[in-house]
Amino acid sequence: MTAVGSCRNQAAPLIGISCGRSETGSVRLSSAYTDAIVRAGGIPVVLPIIDDQVLAERLLAKVDGVVFSGGPDIDPAEYGEEVWNGTVIIDAVRDRSDLLLARAALSSGKPVLAICRGEQLMNVVLGGTLYQDIPTQVDTLIKHSGFDHRIGIEKGSVLYQIFGQDSLTVNSSHHQAVKDPAPGIRISAYAPDGVVEAYEYEHVLSVQFHPERLVQKDSSWLALFRYFIGLASPRSGR
């Protein structure tokens, strides 16, 4: 690493954030993600939509950690299923990009924070499956789209380590979720209906809710991003 790179890393880790696309094809990402990374002490960089594995690996070599952001549904074909119903919305171009970046991130060993779609993405890449539509596939009274609810946190998990609580109130903006956890995944939080709300896998921390939005109303949620930034710092001993 060059002296310039060393100085940059010592100041703050560089965090790549996956993006979505607008209907016209332009880059789309809520500023809540970049704001949360800045407030936690990192330098956010939006990762472009790509279609090349070599480029994915080169991008991951330039950053110290990766955030996989929310967005539309992942094509069920990626986990061996057909589309369940008309609620499933797919962006094949973004799927291709995110799958390449996710595989590169796993190979890199660099810290990953996967949020909402990101949690679903990492589970699929690691070999798991998804509920394509919670309202029609899960027997539940909880509204997972647009409502806050409590989650139970497993003692000994990273989330418990960060917050020191076995229950938290989170926001909810999804109609899909982990169904069959991929091999090696450790579930760290559940909704009362059993829907997976967080899991851990080696250097990956995944949450189904949106902490970048929670931070805007409650600064205590910065603890999650500061933990992640700490892992991405060279001082963490990675």
Mean pLDDT, all residues: 93
State the strand order across the main sheet. Answer: 4-1-5-6-13-12-11-8-9
The stretches of 5 or more residues where confidence is low (pLDDT under 50) are: 1-9
- Major sheet characteristics: 9 strands, mixed
- The H-level CATH homologous superfamily, spelled out, is Class I glutamine amidotransferase (GATase) domain
Fraction of helical residues: 25-40%
Write the layout of secondary structure elements.
Layout: H1 3-11, E1 14-18, E2 20-21, E3 27-28, H2 31-40, E4 43-47, H3 53-62, E5 65-68, H4 92-108, E6 112-115, H5 117-125, E7 130-131, H6 134-137, E8 149-153, H7 158-163, E9 167-170, E10 177-178, E11 186-190, E12 196-201, E13 204-207, H8 211-217, H9 222-232
Parallel strand pairs: 1-4, 1-5, 5-6, 6-13
Antiparallel strand pairs: 2-3, 7-10, 8-9, 8-11, 11-12, 12-13
Task: Describe the protein.
The chain has one domain (3-236): Rossmann fold (3-Layer(aba) Sandwich), CATH 3.40.50.880. With 238 residues, it is an alpha/beta fold. It has nine helices and 13 strands. The longest helix is centred in the middle third of the chain and has 17 residues, at 92-108. Helix 3 crosses helix 4 (92-108). It is globular and about 45 Å long. It has a nine-stranded mixed beta sheet, with helices on both faces. Strands 2-3 form a two-stranded antiparallel ribbon. Strands 7-10 form a two-stranded antiparallel ribbon. The two termini are 15 Å apart.
